[in-house]
Design a protein that fits this description.
Helices cover about 55% and strands about 5% of the residues. By secondary structure, it is mainly alpha-helical. The relative contact order is 0.14. The structure holds adenosine monophosphate (AMP) and tryptophan.
Length: about 325
């Protein structure tokens, strides 16, 4: 028996921000000690909305470099590019054929993204969660660490595995596909926008000031935090639904400073925004400094990155092919000689 497995990924659709880091990547790092991690850059997901080919290839490499810069150790984890492993597309097709259309039509993210595409919604956008299910199920993942917005997609992956594959095509004791569990952190699983405490921090928000990107220089971080939306109360607090900005900025501060919720609640209970904002900016700048330094080295000379991605691809492919063959055979597809 090997170690339990983790699978997760981020789309290379633009600069990664502290929401991606806090909600997802930061949970991957400690799991490396106890799990075999498969961490992919999901470029096939990134093309479900209109994209620029040159940007996509740059973002794919830079996302992989960010994984390493955030502390993913290629000796403990396999980092790879999703599209380089054909099994993802093939399992997606097999799962497509057993997934009811209405399961996909009710996905919240599909509905939200479809509105933005007006009359140009691709079949790929609808199929996005099935490809995500294929990503996860190919690696017999035990745990899938993601932000809160992926909860519904994870549930779909579990339902496809259990109700549409295992119960229909599985024989014997061992399930055909492992049914994965999500790992969604308690605090910081939904980091909100700096300019609106009610909406999620997102790569696609046209307002740059709404997010702190992992590669933002210190002056820009200062400027964005200075302009962040606040309220008129004195004294900062967590958990007051009428003060979403206070809750969000305190949460970011507690995670980035490593101080934890209780000490932050105490430190800031009588603080005004004018005192708090420079503290938050300092914590963000300090937390991102080592990531930015390591990223710069990796992207200036891509030799290490390409070795890591090749090794990751090779590791991942062996596992993915095995699972794919198991499913092909259970579905009655004739083996290749
Ligand atoms: P994406 O940028 O959509 O590919 O998301 C990559 C990962 O980051 C997923 O696990 C998301 O759930 C997570 N994520 C994205 N935005 C946020 C956010 N604002 N707060 C927390 N997690 C997030
Ligand atoms: N849909 C995820 C997101 O937008 C990205 C993703 C694709 C993913 N495949 C995955 C996350 C598999 C975890 C596991 O964030």
């Amino acid at each position: 028996m090997g170690r339990p497995r983790v699978l997760s990924g981020v789309q290379p659709t633009g600069a990664l921000h502290i929401g991606n880091w806090i909600g997802a990547i930061s949970s991957w790092v400690p799991l490396q000690e106890s799990h075999d991690n498969f961490l992919c850059v999901v470029d096939l997901h990134a093309i479900t909305v209109p994209h620029d080919p040159k940007q996509l290839s740059e973002n794919t490499l830079s996302t992989a470099a960010i994984y390493l810069a955030c502390g993913i150790d290629p000796k403990l984890s396999s980092i790879f590019i999703q599209s380089q492993i054909k099994a993802h597309s093939e399992l997606c097709w097999l799962l497509n054929c057993v997934t009811p259309l209405n399961w996909l039509e009710r996905m919240i993210q599909f509905k939200e993204k479809a509105v933005k595409q007006a009359d140009n919604v691709s079949v790929g956008l609808l199929d996005y969660p099935v490809l995500m299910a294929a990503d996860i199920l190919l690696y017999d993942a035990d745990l899938v660490p993601v932000g809160e917005d992926q909860k519904q997609h994870l549930e779909l992956a579990r339902n496809i595995a259990q109700q549409r594959i295992n119960s229909r095509f599985g024989k014997g004791q061992k399930p055909l596909l492992k049914v994965p569990k999500g790992l969604i952190r308690k605090e910081g699983a939904r980091v909100m926008s700096l300019t609106d405490g009610q909406s999620k921090m997102s790569k696609s928000d046209p307002n740059e000031g709404s997010r702190i990107n992992l590669l933002d220089p210190p002056e820009l971080i200062n400027k964005k935090i200075k302009r962040a939306k606040t309220d008129t109360h004195i004294g900062l607090e967590f958990g007051n639904i009428d003060r979403p900005e206070a809750d969000n900025l305190l949460t970011i501060y507690s995670v980035l400073s490593g101080m934890g919720r209780d000490s932050v609640a105490k430190e800031c209970s009588e603080m005004g925004w004018g005192t708090f904002k420079p503290l938050l900016a300092e914590a963000a700048i300090e937390a991102l400094k080592p990531i930015q330094k390591r990223y710069k080295d990796l992207i200036n000379d891509k030799t290490e990155l390409s070795i890591v991605l090749e090794q990751g691809r090779a590791n991942a492919e062996v596992v993915a092919e095995k699972t794919l063959n198991r499913v092909r055979s259970a579905l009655g597809l004739i083996e290749r000689n």
